[in-house]
Amino acid sequence: MGDDEAVVVQVGDLVDRGPDSAGVLDVVRRRLEGDPRRWVRLIGNHEWQYLGGERFWPEPLPEAGAAG
């Protein structure tokens, strides 16, 4: 497969990973709109958390190192 046939799969975690989540989402959106056959965008856990708020985890996660 040559570069002109390559498919880019973006595997999520675009938000909450730096100072410009909105800018990152905009870049990926523009690429997807430019050639939707070559770009696949998956939603990562950070996107699900952003979309679902506190409903993302039904219970708080235990503190790191806590006995469970």
Unreliable stretches (pLDDT < 50, length at least 5) are: none
Structural domain count: 1
Average predicted local confidence, pLDDT: 76
How much beta, percentage-wise?
5-15%
Alpha-beta content class: alpha+beta
Oligomer designation:
single chain
The N- and C-terminal alpha carbons lie at a distance of 49 Å
Strand order in the largest sheet? 1-2
Order of helices and strands: EHEH
Shape descriptor reads elongated
By DSSP (H or I, 4+ residues per run), the number of helices equals: 2
Description of the molecule:
With 68 residues, this protein is an alpha+beta fold. It has one domain (3-56). The protein is 32% helix and 9% strand. The protein has 2 helices and 2 strands. It has helices spanning 21-34, 45-52; strands at residues 8-10, 39-41. Strands 1-2 form a two-stranded parallel sheet. Strand 1 (8-10), helix 1 and strand 2 form a beta-alpha-beta unit. It is elongated and about 45 Å long. 1% of the residues are buried.
